[in-house]
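Before relying on records like the one below, remember that each one covers exactly one chain. Contacts with other chains, cofactors or solvent are not represented anywhere in the record.
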Amino acid sequence: MIFKPLEAITLADLQRLVENRISEGKTIEYKLILPPQSNEEKIKFLRAASSIANIAGGDLLSSALVPVLHPMVLEAFAEGAF
């Protein structure tokens, strides 16, 4: 989990996730594509989002915004580095 407000998250924060190979867990979820297209993808997304919200809060990170920040992070998403 990134312990900062959304507007305070930097490229360095995302790079640390990649470099430290932080995996998905109870407080962090990675999505390659948002918004989900199929009903199955929508259900999976909603389960993940509600799980994070119901447990302790957390971060849902999408590659949709990452290319704007840094290609290295997008590559990590695509390669399943998380």
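The first helix runs from residue 11 to 19.
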